[in-house]
Fold this protein.
Amino acid sequence: MEQQVEALRGEALAEIAAAKDRATLEAARIRYLGKSGAVTAISEGMRNVPKEDRPRFGKLLNDLRQAVTQALDDSERLLLEAADSAAVSSLDLSLPGTWPSPGTLHPLTQLMDRVVRCFRRMGFAIADGPDIETEWHCFDALNTPADHPARNEQDTFYLPDGRLLRSHTSSVQIRVMENCPPPIRIIAPGAAYRRDEVDATHLAQFTQMEGLYVAEKVSLADLKGTLEFFFRELFGSGTNIQFRPHFFPFTEPSYEIDIRTEALGNEWMELAGCGMVDPAVFEAICERRGDRVFDPEKVSGFAFGFGLERLAMNLSRIPDIRMLVENDLRFLNQF
Ligand code: DAH
């Protein structure tokens, strides 16, 4: 019996040591330790062993089972380690990795950031107001009478309760003056809405940047200096800028600003509206606030407004405004 055990141990350990893969090891585990395996079979011989020899023999069998188990576990670990180092050795750590594409900011967002940075350098703070506005903030307070075409149902989105989607960000001028005394120097970027047929130059929702500067003795020279500086920052120092007389209800005098640069074809591009805040706007604010801190005899101011999409299209030669909202990566990746 002892010889049998010894022989089995030798055979099992040799076979395990020779195993080259885990499948062979698993087969050996079953052959020796399985329910009908060799070690199990030899244990059944215990029945025929004389009583006094049983403890010694039992120990022999236990040692055998333990030795085989240990050998199987060791071999398995070695095989796993070998597989790991094989995988690592075929890995070239000097190769450049594959980067996830991080994406970029939308061209309008990039332009907005540039514009905001420029005005912040000149001391303008950022203000905002609601997209859903009252008629008073959007029109009345801005000296825009009830029969003005901008108030036509065909031009603006009205809600059932009489409020509307603001057709320009000029309403933020009113929001700010209602709540803060002068001096005021703000820009207000945000969405504006109009019932325009969508085409290459119109969207029903677009982006505007409003500006307002109110203090004592603000003059037309301040308006021109500020906006000329801004447009030369954006389009280059050689840019030609003209202030062409125009009409807006909320400014007097009013101008449209045209830009011309050699780099962009030397044609005049109409890019913004501006003017000196109309005294009627200050009077509306005084009435609403119940004080005279915006008395047009004491303060003056300038305001301006322009569309970001139009600016982006001229600056980057974008032929169709819809490209800015279609999310086509072939377009967006160019910025
Ligand atoms: N609100 C005007 C528009 O939507 C733009 C504008 C013109 C704003 C003149 C101003 C301004 O503040 O002074 O077309």
In short: The radius of gyration is 42 Å. The mean pLDDT is 93. The longest strand covers residues 205-215. The pocket of 3,4-dihydroxyphenylalanine is lined by residues 168, 170, 210, 248, 251, 273-275, 303-305 (CB under 6 Å).
